[in-house]
Specification:
The chain is α+β, with helices and mostly antiparallel strands and about 350 residues long. Helix content is about 45%, strand content about 10%. Helix 9 (about 220-230) runs parallel beside helix 12 (about 290-310). It is elongated, with a radius of gyration of 26 Å. This is Bacteriophage Mx8 p63 C-terminal domain-containing protein.
Amino acid sequence: MLPKDPKRQAAGKARAESLTPQTRRAIAKRASGLRWAKEFGLPQAIYGSKESPLKIGDLTVDCYVLEDGTRVLTQESFLTVLGRAAKAKGGHGVRTAVDSLPPFLAAANLKPLIDKEVSRSTAPIEFVTPAGARVFGYPAELLPEVCRVYLSARDEGVLLSSQEHIAMRADMLVRALASIGIVALVDEATGYQEVRDKKALSALLDKYLLQEFAKWAKRFPDTFYKEMFRLRGWTYPSISGGKPGVVGKYTMDIVYQRLAPGLVKELEARNPKEDTGRRKAAHHQWLTEDVGHPALSEHIHAVTGLMRAADDWDQFKRMLDRSFPVKGDQLQLKFDDM
């Protein structure tokens, strides 16, 4: 056995002493991750990190490329981008008893819309990140497929009220991803595909989604609905919860019927309900940016103030009728042609 080199020993000791506690923990975590990958046969991610996520509008998606070239999105990011809670109910990598589907596809109304190919690709993948963390993820290609399932449910009129926010998010994602491709985006974000302009694809996607998010921008702040629920004695829903169907009728009365003469009649003509009972767009999307939206925002702000001042629904309606009576039929506000 050869004697140890004193110089190399000294250099190694000096390096160890120069490391910060954070660096030591990172090195230990990477080593532990490599042991897990070897001991349990877990796939190893060779590209990607939490410092280089995929940006989709204002969302951050952690993505990686495995040794075999599989592109994956972490389970937490996958759920978040769909508008669901970041942590899966029942633990990491959980699958329900409904055909072994993940929770975001397990609803009975979605089952007839899921083909076998999509079902086979829903098994969560446990892998080790380059930083040494054990995480669960899903194939990147599954994201647009899941979006299409929700959009099909919407188109066929079987979407639940608790799923509407997911369908809205899915609509935006599919539009943005259609011409670009999720695989190319993941490759770019992780560095797997080196191109001259590394951020070209994500910049294009971001620009597109900023436009899409602008279309769906909240014109009705949460406080508007919170005050409405308070006055009606309802429990305000969580992010994933829906709203009673009568809320739409209340909004029509409180806002649109009092915003401008003839507004409701024109909106119904331009934005009628389809056979599914839904409209192609929200009413506020038909209002112009220069006149309609400012007037809408001002009215909502004033109405919300009346709600806050009222003790109950009847008192609020009396204050509303006095301050903003229902308008007539003479149209004044401008519309977009869309």
